[in-house]
Each structure stands twice: as structure tokens, then as C-alpha cells.
Specification:
By secondary structure, the protein is mainly alpha-helical. The chain is about 65% helix and about 0% strand.
């Protein structure tokens, strides 16, 4: 048997991460990096919607790893808004 794809889970996680990245406090050092990660996730998801055959699951996993690292560090530094969006 082949390896089972994590793609549905990764897509779900990306859809959760995108609005959270958007709502980082704009004066934080993380906001610029988060904006780039958000754009990358949106671009990857747009590829997924059009052509699953060309979809690169590894790129999505890496983009999520970077995005969650930014969100984690911003949270530790108190740079997330109090009413951060929930899934």
C-alpha cells in the first residue's frame, strides 16, 4: 500500500492559518513575514483548486511550518490581537 496523503488536513490547516496571519498586529516585526506567508498559502491553495496533479504537498507543509512558527513567536511576544479569529 502507498503512503496516505495528508493533503486534506494540510488544506484545512492552511484555511485556519490564513486569517490568523492576516490579523497579526501591524506594528509587529512579524506582520511583514506573516503577509508573505499568507500570500504563499493563498497561492498554494489556488493551485490545489485547479490542478491536484501538479500540487506540491511538501511546499504546503513547509509553508504551514513557517506560518505556525511565526504565529507561535508572535503569540509569545504578545503580538496577536485579543480577539484573534477562530476556525
Amino acid at each position: 500500500m502507498g503512503r496516505m496523503s495528508n493533503l486534506p488536513l494540510l488544506i484545512h490547516q492552511a484555511k485556519i492559518a490564513i486569517p490568523r496571519l492576516e490579523h497579526l498586529l501591524p506594528d509587529s516585526v512579524y506582520a511583514h513575514r506573516a503577509s508573505g506567508c499568507r500570500r504563499n498559502l493563498l497561492r498554494l491553495l489556488s493551485t490545489e483548486e485547479h490542478d491536484l496533479a501538479d500540487f506540491d504537498e511538501t511546499r504546503l507543509q513547509y509553508a504551514l511550518d513557517v506560518s505556525f512558527a511565526i504565529l507561535e513567536q508572535a503569540a509569545k511576544d504578545g503580538r496577536l490581537p485579543i480577539n484573534s479569529p477562530t476556525p
